Amino acid sequence: MVLDWLDEKPSEQAFDKLAESVAFEYLNRKFKRLGYIRNKNGEVDFYKHSAFGIEVKWQPVVKNASETYKQLRTPFKSIWSQTNFLKELPPNNDPLTYLIL
Question: Would you state the pLDDT for residue 36?
Answer without folding.
Answer: 93
